[in-house]
Design a protein that fits this description.
Layout (H helix, E strand, L loop, with lengths): L2 H13 L7 H14 L7 E5 L2 H12 L4 H8 L4 H18 L4 H8 L18 H9 L17 H9 L17 H4 L9 H11 L6 H12 L3 E3 L3 E5 L4 E2 L15 E2 L5 E2 L1 E2 L2 E2 L2 H5 L14 H19 L7 H6 L3 H10 L10 H28 L3 E2 L4 E2 L5 H12 L4 H9 L2 E3 L2 E2 L16 E2 L7 E3 L6 E6 L2 H4 L8 E5 L17 H10 L15 H6 L6
Parallel strand pairs: 1-3
Antiparallel strand pairs: 2-3, 4-5, 5-6, 7-8, 9-12, 10-11, 11-13, 14-15, 15-16
Helix pairs in contact: 1-8, 1-10, 2-11, 3-5, 16-18
Length: 538
């Protein structure tokens, strides 16, 4: 085994390590790195259990030095992002005993990463000291610019893990909003691959102090971001799965799990939605179009296995009887797990009965809510409930001929409930220009106008409702939609922050009295408890 191969193998092992970070060793190495680069040692080093939470602290600290991040944080953040900002602010201030965010920013000062400030001030960066030290370990500086492709195990694994634009960690699927900061850690300027090359260049000589310290940080820590007066550090994963090419991949669960519970789903080094892995057999195959062919084969095999189980003679489950007996969630979980088989024998009749009973309960809850809201003085913006039109069955048939099947849940909603619109005003439930978008339950009436065909013949969406911000008369994002065709018992509600199926979304709505925007809010209006009291389970 050549020394170069050994170095690269050792750094690959460190890249994929699930050992807890050596926090004491990492902090000592960070201080030595600062000193070797000619900088004062950091006053504060703050740790996070995952890089995802750490990036929000980084975003808050770099905002005064980077116009893009100042604008991002000042613009309309989602509710989830606002909560992440609050958590990061509390950690920053609490860990260093500061009075608040501005005090923490004063302690940390400007970033020492080139991509973390604009325009960059070279004298504040580690890059100059690192480059000078690297020049001293080679005879030909072109040796410092060796580019390793994906055929190199270490470079390929690093690029698909956290590097460049391809890293699975830096996907908005798992790190929304701050995903780019994953790829702008210290290792974006001095990668594990470069460290391995430099060890080979140094050989038996004593390495420059600044390089030796950087190597020691890499050996002891996960991703980290340096500042003038401090550093933001993150731990390594507690669980990590790779394929034979050392790329993140797992077909039966998350490929990466961090110590704070954050998870990353990936296939062949590419980030994928959680439901592609956890509910593979029930995801329409058209969603995989254009993705890695090996995943399509894997998904097709899982779908065939699920269909075989569903078709087994012993598979009859008395779904309708169990649903009426109170197994509401369990029955819907089984129906979704059946995939398109839920619309076929021997399940079709029972699945339809379950769907109709579900929507009868939804319609009863809706009538109760509307009556209670009126009693509270709630002013509806429009008719809160429009029953199904007499021609609804013909309208459904016409749309399904055009774009394919509607999920059974949505189809029966149109047949039994019709349309609903709980938008309106109320001093506490829906105050004008309030701090929270209450996201009142709204489902458009079925018509050709709410169905949009995509560029491909087999791709379409049906628009369910505007997003929570548009409902509050604020410029927002994409509407809530469902992808078509979808022959399953239930389908995912797209562009909605909870990423749940339609029936589960309706449950969430009624849990919060028709206003699911209050889920996760610190102050929930007291009327919510009155609104949801005694509503029917489904």
């Amino acid at each position: 085994m050549t020394p170069a191969y050994q170095h690269r193998t050792d750094w690959l092992r460190r890249l994929l390590s699930t050992e807890p970070a050596d926090r004491t060793g990492a902090e000592s190495a960070v201080c030595r790195l600062y000193g070797a680069a000619g900088f004062a040692e950091p006053q504060q080093i703050i740790w996070f259990d995952s890089p995802f939470e750490a990036t929000w602290a980084v975003a808050l600290l770099i905002a005064p030095h980077h116009g893009l991040w100042a604008n991002t944080l000042a613009s309309g953040l989602s509710k989830d992002d606002a909560q992440r900002v609050a958590r990061a602010t509390a950690v920053l201030a609490g860990q260093i005993g500061a009075a608040g965010l501005e005090a923490a920013r004063s302690v940390f000062g400007a970033p020492r990463g080139q991509s973390l400030q604009f325009p960059p001030v070279v004298g504040r960066m580690f890059s100059s000291a690192l480059l000078e030290a690297r020049h001293g370990i080679v005879d030909d500086i072109m040796q410092l610019f060796t580019v390793h492709g994906d055929d190199d195990a270490l470079a390929g694994a690093e690029n698909h893990f956290w590097g460049g634009n391809r890293g699975a960690l830096r996907s908005a699927l798992h790190c929304p909003t701050t995903d780019s900061l994953i790829g702008q850690s210290f290792y974006s300027e001095y990668s594990f691959s470069q460290m391995a090359d430099d060890q080979e260049h140094v050989g038996d000589r004593t390495p420059p102090a600044v390089l030796a310290a950087a190597w020691d940080v890499g050996r002891a820590s996960g991703l980290w971001w340096p500042f003038e007066g401090g550093a933001i550090m993150s731990d390594r994963p507690s669980e990590l799965h790779v394929n034979e090419r050392h790329l993140l991949e797992r077909g039966d669960g998350p490929a990466v799990v961090y110590r704070d519970g954050r998870r990353v789903y990936a296939w062949n080094g590419k980030a994928v939605p959680e439901r592609w892995i956890e509910q593979t057999a029930s995801v329409p195959a058209r969603e995989f179009k254009g993705f890695d062919p090996t995943f399509r084969k894997y998904a097709e095999a899982k779908a065939r296995a699920a269909a075989a189980r569903a078709a087994a003679p012993v598979a009859r489950r008395d779904l309708a009887a169990r649903y009426r007996a109170g197994e509401h969630r369990a029955v819907w979980t089984e129906l979704v797990g059946l995939g398109p088989a839920a619309r076929q024998k021997p399940y079709a009749d029972e699945a339809l009965e379950v769907a109709h009973e579900t929507m009868r309960r939804v319609e009863a809850n809706l009538r109760t809510l509307i009556e209670r809201l009126r009693g509270m003085g709630y002013v509806f913006a429009d008719a809160p409930h429009i029953p199904p039109a007499r021609q609804v069955h013909k309208e459904i048939a016409r749309i399904e001929r055009r774009v394919g099947a509607l999920p059974l849940s949505l189809r029966t909603f149109y047949e039994v409930v019709g349309a609903v619109d709980l938008t309106g005003t109320h001093p506490t439930l829906a105050p004008a220009r309030g701090p929270i978008a209450p996201d009142p339950l709204l489902v458009y009436a079925l018509s050709e106008d709410v169905v949009e065909s995509g560029e491909d013949d087999d791709a379409a969406v049906i628009i369910i409702a505007p997003d929570d911000l548009h409902k509050a008369d604020v410029s927002g994002g994409d509407p809530y939609e469902m992808a078509l065709p979808d022959a399953r018992a239930d389908g995912e509600l797209l562009n909605e922050r909870h990423h749940v199926f339609f029936v589960e979304y309706l449950r969430l709505c009624f849990t919060f009295g028709g206003f699911p925007g209050y889920e996760g809010a610190a102050d929930v209006p007291p009327e919510i408890a009155t609104l949801r009291a005694g509503l029917l389970d489904f």
